[in-house]
Amino acid sequence: MTSPFPQTYPRTRLRRLRVAPWVRNLAGENSLSPSDLIWSMVVHDGDEPKTAVGSMPDLYRLNVAEAAKAAKRAQALSIPAIAIFPHINPGRKDETGSEALNPDGLIPTAIKAMKDAAPDVGIICDVALDPFTSHGHDGLINEDGYVLNDETSELLVAQALVQAEAGVDVVAPSDMMDGRVGAVRDALENGGFRNTMILSYAAKYASSFYGPYRDAVGSATALKGDKKTYQQNPANSDEALREVAMDIEEGADMVMVKPGLPYLDIVRRVSETFAVPTIAFQVSGEYAQIKAAGAKGWIDADKVMLETLMSFKRAGASGIITYFAEDAARKLGA
Ligand code: PBG
């Protein structure tokens, strides 16, 4: 916005407001704190301790006991919430992703253990079938490999109810089927889960920045083809507003834009257009880029991490899902 007053040199010297840290802080338009962060965490269903993910340095898949300990650390660091993603034994995957509906499966077990360990930390779970299907798609496929919308939606409802039974605070449909937010909302209302929130992956793009995540949850080798028939075309912006509008209408409490940094324009449009909390997801490929360039000594990874997180706030995000959450919270001096 241009000032109504003329700003002419030398009466105006914008550098005056940059002369010392105290005034830079005082005049700062946005701030970043641990309470802005959602910790993106990968859990695995084995007993072995944390396992490394090749394409995501310093990111480990945790077993359930380790995830519960991490939840305690989140609580101590004032990180408000954790989003958990499952890596299951490939032997448990099938065509329909049936393990997603197992009430004694990895996700319900992890939810219970983490809520027990750290009741004040919100737990968020993806609702989508891709970590559980042998083909790596987010839903049921027909003989042509096309992901079926309404049939998938029914399974997502069942998956969300399993998570709600286990005590999840927020279900986060990440599958991009049409109409699934409304179906999940109705089922939660009817099932007595009135306060279970829905964070919809509303504007989720068919992005190549998800590569390392698919490695982390073990769906990369399985995935045949791409997800362009359900995730959004990266060329589009108006379409994101339609997606968000529909999800809010269907009962989403919060909406997400994903990936993050390459889609800050969408974060800005969504947060300006709709009066609901807008969450940005700094995805695995964004994390990997920063880590890789940092390891080569080409950038200062810690500073770039904090700069990118602040840029989400500047764009209007109320929260950021990030693999850097623990690291960033420590650097921010919780
Ligand atoms: C699954 C899902 C994906 C991510 C979160 N949930 C991958 C995908 O849609 O293929 C990506 C997370 C990341 O890259 O960090 N529906």
Q: Could you give a quick summary of the protein structure above?
A:
This protein is of the alpha/beta class and 334 residues long.
Percentage of residues assigned to helices: 25-40%
Low-confidence parts, pLDDT < 50 over ≥5 residues?
none
Write out the CATH superfamily name of the domain at 32-255.
Aldolase class I
Could you report the average pLDDT, rounded to the nearest whole number?
96
Which structural class is indicated by helix and strand composition?
Answer: alpha/beta
Count of DSSP E strands? Answer: 10
Spatially, the strands of the biggest sheet line up as 1-4-5-6-7-8-9-10
User: What general form does the structure show?
Assistant: globular
Q: Indicate the proportion of strand residues.
A: 15-25%
Distance between the termini: 33 Å
Provide the list of bound ligands, each named once.
Answer: ligand PBG
Assigned CATH class of the domain at 32-255: Alpha Beta
> What can be said about the biggest beta sheet?
8 strands, parallel, barrel
Gyration radius from CA atoms, angstroms: 20 Å
Helices and strands, in order, run as HEEEHEHEHEHEHHEHEHHEH
List keywords for this structure.
two-stranded antiparallel ribbon; binds ligand PBG; 334 residues; eight-stranded parallel beta barrel
How does this structure look, described?
The chain is an alpha/beta fold and 334 residues long. It has a domain of 224 residues: TIM Barrel (Alpha-Beta Barrel). It is 36% helix and 15% strand. The chain has eleven helices and ten strands. The protein has an eight-stranded parallel β-barrel with strand order 1-4-5-6-7-8-9-10, surrounded by nine helices. A two-stranded antiparallel sheet has the order 2-3. α4 links the parallel β5 and β6. The protein is globular. The protein starts with 20 loop residues before the first helix and ends with a helix. It binds ligand PBG. Ligand PBG binds next to α6.
